[in-house]
Design goal:
By secondary structure, the chain is mainly alpha-helical. It is built from eight helices and no strands.
């Protein structure tokens, strides 16, 4: 189909679209033109370009029709990657495992055990809790 006819058909179709949809389509097409103008040989997308298309795919239902320079599945893969990275960052909150027991508490346990041979592990744990030292039963058993 000649470009003039295609343009006329696009204009007629635009008459039936909502104003917000037209603005988003205009924004998407302008962004693609800007990316093409900045590219010398090969298309290079910045993280901000990826973020823009991920956002646009959430806001605009017809985003797939006007996306030219990458496939829609690529944009969805960017979204999934950002989602995984976001939750990975949130879930990291220090070193894995139980926190280390201070040396002073370790030496106190080592002194209490032989000094009180009739006390069991639970009694030592209970006696340590009185001054506010909270240790697990497994820590005292070690």
């Amino acid at each position: 189909m000649p470009p003039v006819a295609t343009t006329c058909l696009a204009f007629v179709a635009a008459l039936f679209q909502s104003r917000a949809s037209l603005h988003l389509e205009n924004l998407a097409l302008r962004h693609q033109v800007m990316v093409y103008q900045q590219t010398v040989h090969r298309l290079r997308l910045r993280p901000t370009d990826r973020l823009f298309w991920a956002w646009l795919s959430r806001v605009w239902p017809d985003w797939r029709e006007d996306l030219v320079f990458v496939q829609p599945s690529t944009v969805i893969a960017w979204q999934r990657k950002r989602f995984r990275e976001h939750w990975t960052r949130l879930s990291r909150h220090g070193k894995p495992g139980r926190p280390a027991v201070p040396k002073e508490v370790q030496t106190l346990i080592h002194r209490m055990s032989p000094a009180n041979p009739t006390w069991g592990v639970l009694r030592i744990v209970g006696e340590l809790r009185k001054p506010g030292i909270h240790v697990a039963k497994a820590t005292v058993e070690k």
